[in-house]
Amino acid sequence: xxxxxxxxxxCDSENIVKNGKAPNGKQKYLCHDxxxxxxxxxxSNAFAPQxxxxxPHAYQAFSKSDEMHEVCLKxxxxxxxxxxxxxxxxxxx
Length: 93
Hints:
Blueprint: E1 16-21, E2 27-31, E3 37-39, H1 49-62, H2 66-77, H3 82-91
Antiparallel strand pairs: 1-2, 2-3
């Protein structure tokens, strides 16, 4: 069930207005105090727990050299798509 938010998720201001719809149909809101946008019931941007465990194990298994280990770590830290990281680290491509 979707609910209308009454305060900004970022600054807790009540000075928010509707600001269109997101592609998934959720209502978007704009805060007039901090200028940031938010939406109804925002999801987490974090990797899923299973992916968080798979990615480091995959690049550790593949990274024989310090250089490859560093590249894989940078990909992970810069939030590259986890499927790309897994493909690169498990095939060596």
